[in-house]
Amino acid sequence: MRLRNSSRPWFDLSPINRRRWQNFRANKRGFWSLWIFLALFILTLFAEFIANDKPLLIQYEGDYYFPVFTAY
User: Which residue, 18, 29, 58, 68, is the most exposed by fewest CB within 10 angstroms?
Assistant: First the structure.
C-alpha cells in the first residue's frame, strides 16, 4: 500500500488487485453475498449480549432494573 494523492489517499491498490476487485464487483451474487456475510458477522459480535442468561430489562414493582449491567 502506498500513499498517493487520490480520492482515497489512505488506500491504494496495485493494478492487478484493482482489476480483481472490479471483477469481483461485477459478480453481483458474490458481491451481495459479501455484504450479507459482513452484516451477519457484525450481528454475531453482539450475540453474547443479546442471548445471555440475564434479562436485559426487568420491571419489578413499578421500577425498572437492568440486571445485565448491575448485580442485584
Answer: 29
Work out how many domains the chain is built from and give that number.
1
Alpha-carbon gap, residue 43 to 47, rounded angstroms:
7
For 70, the 3-state DSSP assignment is: coil
Taking only the tens place, the pLDDT of each residue in 32-54 is: 999 999 999 999 998 888 787 88
Q: Would you say residue 57 lies in a domain?
A: yes
Is 5 domain-assigned? Answer: no
d(CA 67, CA 58) in angstroms, rounded, equals 8
Asked if residue 71 is part of any domain, the answer here is no
